[in-house]
Design a protein that fits this description.
Elements: E1 2-5, E2 15-18, H1 31-52, E3 56-61, E4 72-78, H2 105-120
Antiparallel strand pairs: 1-2, 2-4, 3-4
Helix pairs in contact: 1-2
Length: 123
């Protein structure tokens, strides 16, 4: 699996866990792939909490975007001060934003390095 920062989001640390094999639906995961998916979701959630200071993370998987019709899991840090009208599924209003609102490439790179360092630390 690969971990990448989402492009076009206003939320720092919105990452996507991508299964390397093309799979159109979660039901198509092998038993081994399904078992391998849980630990990274937990580890990335913990790393985001430590890195960006979020109150919790949201986890979602749709595989519906025409450019990405395969299993990829969004792990979204939810800040403690996020307005109520942007919580839950409404968080997706923060994806696909204009460039001037989106997390910059430099900041995504910095966050990726910090997350990698956190994930590489022994638990």
């Amino acid at each position: 699996m690969d971990l990448v920062h989402a492009f076009g989001t206003a939320i720092e640390g919105w990452v996507v866990l991508v299964v390397r094999r093309h799979i159109a639906a979660v039901a198509d995961l092998t038993d081994e792939e399904a078992l391998e998916l849980g630990p990274p979701v937990k580890a990335v959630s913990q790393a985001l909490h430590d890195t960006v200071g979020c109150a919790k993370t949201y986890v979602a998987q749709f595989a519906e975007h025409p450019d990405h019709p395969h299993v990829h899991v969004h792990i979204v840090p939810r800040a403690a001060d996020l307005p109520d009208d942007q919580r839950g599924p409404s968080i997706f209003s923060q994806l696909g934003v204009e460039d001037d609102r989106a997390v910059s490439e430099a900041r995504m790179t910095e966050l990726a390095r910090r997350l990698r360092a956190r994930l590489d630390r022994p638990r």
